[in-house]
Design goal:
Layout (H helix, E strand, L loop, with lengths): L11 E9 L5 E9 L13 E5 L2 H16 L15 H9 L1
Antiparallel strand pairs: 1-2, 2-3
C-alpha cells in the first residue's frame, strides 16, 4: 500500500493486480476510485469507481505505481482529465 506524496493532496484510489490467468497470459487489472468511500458522506455526493483490464488504463496505473514507489520517472506521461463534463462522459461509457 502506498499513501501518497508529501505536499500533494491526493483524493483518488488506485489498485493494480498483475496475475497469470488460466490461459497462461499475464494480465493487469486495475481499480480506480474517487471519493473516500465513507458511508456518512455518501449521502451528499457519489463516489465512483472503475474496475478494468483495459491495456491503456492498466498501463497508466502501472506507470503511476512505478513512479510513486520506485521513482521510475518516464520522460512523458499521458494524462486523463474528466473535465467539467466528466460525470456525463463516464456514465455514457458505462452504458
Amino acid at each position: 500500500m502506498f499513501h501518497g506524496v508529501v505536499g500533494l493532496k491526493t483524493h483518488a484510489k488506485l489498485a493494480l493486480v498483475v496475475r497469470q490467468d488460466p490461459d497462461g497470459k499475464i494480465r493487469r487489472y486495475a481499480h480506480l476510485g474517487i471519493g473516500n468511500y465513507n458511508p456518512t458522506t455518501a449521502r451528499f455526493y457519489t463516489d465512483l469507481s472503475l474496475l478494468t483490464r483495459d491495456d491503456a488504463i492498466t498501463s497508466a496505473v502501472h506507470n503511476a505505481f512505478n513512479y510513486l514507489t520506485a521513482y521510475a520517472e518516464q520522460p512523458n506521461y499521458k494524462t486523463a482529465n474528466a473535465g467539467s463534463g466528466g460525470h456525463g462522459e463516464i456514465m455514457h461509457r458505462a452504458d
